Amino acid sequence: MASSLYVRMSAFQMNLVPLQEPLGFIKVLEWIAAIFSFATCGGFKGKTEILVSCNGTKNETVTATFGYPFRLNQASFQSPSSVCGVDWKRHVLIGDYSSSAQFYVTFAVFVFLYCIATLLLYVGYTNLYRDSRKLPMTDFVVTVVATFLWLVSTSAWAKALTDIKVATGPRIVQELLPCKQSPTACHFGSVTSMGSLNVSVIFGFLNMILWGGNAWFVYKETSLHSPSNTSGSHGQGGAAPPPGI
Fold this sequence. Notes:
single chain; Synaptophysin-like protein 1 isoform X2
């Protein structure tokens, strides 16, 4: 049996028909959506600026650079000189959102790799996939689990993104110790647009919808939808099992 499986696995035959069916076509969409998910989040770089004024100094810019994986508590402020006599490198942004960001990106990368593997199976080993009981069932279980994990990871990342926007926005002026001490006066300057991070959240929920919708088409390939033992018993002249079994 093992040798027979090895022979079938070695017989790679390109068949693009599954890509024209919902099962394969949606898998391609899932593959593309996964790329956008981890690329828009993992590739982000930004900065937030505040304007500092004191005796003899007016509106000097102090900048903190941040990005994936969003350990803001390690993003220190930088200035061309010691503005108002403050060592700004000792002051950092507030918050660590790396767990949510890394969970989201890591899961998206795994989904990307899984889509490549399943597309290879659909296209190169169509008969092996559809004649097997275990492969479609495994694919179905992974699809259901992935749908749930997309919901969990995207929701966590969306909440973290909301907190990141607050932590890098005007609120930082109220949190920085030098800005609370006279005669230093701080005003919020600007922060990099987080449009790409908003897109990552959108693609996360889009992935959840795609995987949830595709679960039905994967289910149709399993023995739960069309039990092979029913046709086998008819072919041998045996009695069909009672309905519901």
